[in-house]
Write a structure and sequence with these properties.
It is a single chain. By secondary structure, the chain is mainly β. Strands 9, 10, 11, 12 and 13 form a five-stranded antiparallel sheet that branches. It is elongated. It is about 0% helix and about 45% strand. The chain folds into four domains: about 350 residues, 7 Propeller (Methylamine Dehydrogenase, Chain H); about 80 residues, Immunoglobulin-like; about 60 residues, Immunoglobulins (Immunoglobulin-like, Sandwich); about 80 residues, Immunoglobulin-like (Sandwich). The longest helix has 6 residues.
Length: about 600
């Protein structure tokens, strides 16, 4: 009767996209500069407390409310005050990517801050925890502070969410080797045993400047790229979201000093910034990486702009890429990063920081938050599509494209609606065919999957009744039978009638024509006889006769048991506080006939047994 059935109902719709969720809405960087993307287009803000030379990070709620931000040394809350236990984190204001904030999966209040020392320094790669329930819900750094992860690191860190949404990969690059180290962050916490991939160039220790340069995941998580500043290269890799492995190195660059890089939102373009020493000029270039072929990618280079100074790049919640112009009152902006060549439409002084200044860095975020979102496609699965009356089923959401809300409809069931992504038990009591409908939605739109007659509920099998004829048990009629002894099926005992073979607890499971099953009451057969089946559903005694211990079985609740002899003298009186077996020692009684009075509330039963 168990039919695992997958229903995926897909429909063709106009493809629409939206940009990041609210976690990246607020940016604080440079010399007290800031941007607010709450209403879509960035608005410069001047209320930030952060003043730093390079890397930084910020985090907001999914709804876009600022939580906190950091330069890797001090953490500032949403009132722009330093958290009391911050101020000495082991990042550095002169590290390319000094800090990266990542939420702990399954929690809305716990966050990891990953920090990096500058110039491959001895403080290495570490993490500290922020708990937003502290300091009257403004948050503070906890006792888990500056926990060492790896003592040899370049200035690069990036994070991406796994495809199943259960965890994050945190990626860093080891100093003096070609080793990528990927750490999984799940609801259980950070797994400090990394997935290590040896691929690409060795980031050599001849110059500390070889630690410089950004590293980024593509928003879709399939690609990883990094810049190795004085080694004069950019490297592009494939990333395996399932295993955490990095592979398939492609080397780009012409020997210039590379620093900033970013992917377009559709993962097809890679933008880089570099400095040409001969011409004393900075360049912003684009590579078309859609082919996946090293030679084709290298040949696709297109110069987008040149200026006195370009440094960090960062994708924004609006899908545009922002260009740090180094200690400038303006940011550059690539308006259409998915477009090829100069059609990407770069504006040199697009964002006025209103009296504040950038430095060399822009805030880093989990790159998945910039993934293009599209109209959801509803899909569902039931753990069984054929069941019996008085049983429950479980439904799972398999919808695509990140829905955020769900409405289930189960007419004829209990409950008949649910707003959970994966509802709990949905129970059907009446035979029939039943529809299931799921409406899922996100900020782009909604989709519906409606499955008529998806669930078939057959009539439940009536509870079988066992009739005893001596040592032969006869079951009421059904389509098939399986007899059990002491919780185990009896091999070959599949007929309506069964002859007892020895002592123990017996019952039968029957199946009706619809494949539904039911289980009889249990009979207990002792060494010298079997307790009779009673029509009043009262207590049963076994073994009969009894020698040392008399077992009393009942299915009720709190009761009193009293044993008397033939003269009416009470010899035993004891409570029975729960359903099941109650053992009474009778080994000290003389052989003969005894009577058991069993009282439960206003009900009473009388039984007898022989002691021998």
């Amino acid at each position: 009767m168990r039919k695992l059935f997958l229903s995926l109902v897909l429909f063709t719709a106009i493809y629409s996209t939206a940009f990041a969720q609210g976690q990246a809405n607020h940016w604080y960087f440079g010399q007290n500069a800031g941007l607010d993307f709450t209403n879509g287009a960035p608005v410069a803000v001047t209320n930030g407390a952060l003043s730093t030379s390079e890397g930084c990070s910020a985090i907001s709620t999914a709804g876009g409310q600022l939580l906190f931000y950091t330069d890797g040394v001090t953490v500032y809350d949403n009132t722009h005050q330093a958290m009391p236990n911050s101020g000495d984190l082991d990042g550095n204001v002169s590290t390319t990517q000094s800090a990266l904030i990542v939420p702990r999966p399954g929690s809305s209040t716990l966050f990891y801050i990953f920090t990096l020392d500058a110039d491959g320094g001895p403080l290495g790669f570490r993490y500290s925890m922020v708990d937003m329930t502290l300091q009257n819900n403004h948050g503070d750094v906890t006792g888990q502070k500056n926990i060492l992860i790896c003592d040899s690191a370049t200035e690069k860190v990036s994070a991406v969410k796994t495809a199943d949404g259960s965890s994050y990969w945190i990626m860093m690059h080891q100093w003096g080797t070609n080793a990528f180290r990927a750490y999984r962050l799940s609801a259980a916490g950070l797994d400090t045993v990394p997935v290590i991939s040896h691929t690409g160039s060795v980031h050599n220790t001849s110059l500390i400047q070889n630690t410089y340069g950004q590293m980024k995941f593509s928003p879709g998580g399939e690609r990883l790229a990094l810049a190795v500043d004085y080694q004069g290269i950019v490297e592009l890799f494939h990333f395996n979201d399932t295993t955490g492995a990095v592979s398939n190195s492609i080397t780009l660059g012409n020997g210039d000093r590379y620093y900033g890089l970013e992917f377009s939102q559709d993962n097809s373009k890679l933008y880089v910034t570099h400095y040409n020493l001969t011409w004393d000029t900075y360049y912003l270039d684009q590579y078309d990486i859609s082919s996946g072929n090293a030679a084709t990618i290298a040949a696709s280079i297109s110069n987008i702009a040149s200026a006195d100074y370009y440094r960090a790049l960062q994708l924004g919640p609006d899908g545009k890429i922002y260009v740090d112009k180094a200690f400038s009152g303006f940011l550059g902006q690539i308006i259409s990063p998915d477009s090829l060549g100069t059609s990407c439409n770069y504006l040199e002084n697009a964002i006025d920081l209103t009296g504040m200044s950038s430095a060399l860095g822009l805030p880093g975020f989990v790159q998945t938050w910039f993934k293009k979102r599209s109209h959801p496609t509803a899909a569902l699965m039931a753990n069984d599509t054929g069941t019996c009356a008085h049983t429950c089923l479980y439904f799972s959401d398999l919808s695509l494209n990140d829905p955020t809300q769900w409405h289930w409809s189960f007419p004829g069931a209990s409950p008949d609606t649910s707003s959970q992504q994966n509802p709990g038990a949905v129970c059907y009591d009446t035979p029939g065919d039943y529809a299931v409908t799921l409406i899922c939605s996100n900020s782009i739109g909604a989709d519906t999957v409606a499955l008529p007659d998806y669930i078939h509920v057959g009539p439940a099998a009536p509870q079988p009744v066992i009739t005893q004829f001596g040592n032969v048990l006869n079951c009421s009629a059904a389509s098939s039978y399986q007899w059990y002894l002491d919780s185990l099926p009896i091999p070959g005992a599949t007929n309506q009638v069964y002859a007892l073979q020895g002592p123990g607890a017996y019952w039968v499971v029957v199946t009706n024509a619809n494949g539904c099953t039911a289980t009889s009451d249990t009979l207990y057969f002792g060494e010298s006889g079997i307790a009779p089946v009673t029509a009043d559903n009262g207590p049963r005694l076994f073994p009969v006769p009894a020698t040392n211990v008399l077992f009393i079985y009942w299915s009720g609740h709190s009761a009193t048991v009293r044993i008397s002899d033939e003269l009416g003298r009470v010899l035993r009186e004891c409570p029975a506080t729960a359903a099941g077996n109650r053992s009474v020692y009778v080994g000290d009684l003389t052989d003969g006939l005894y009577f058991v009075h069993f009282a439960e509330g206003n009900k009473a039963w009388d039984r007898s047994f022989v002691k021998q």
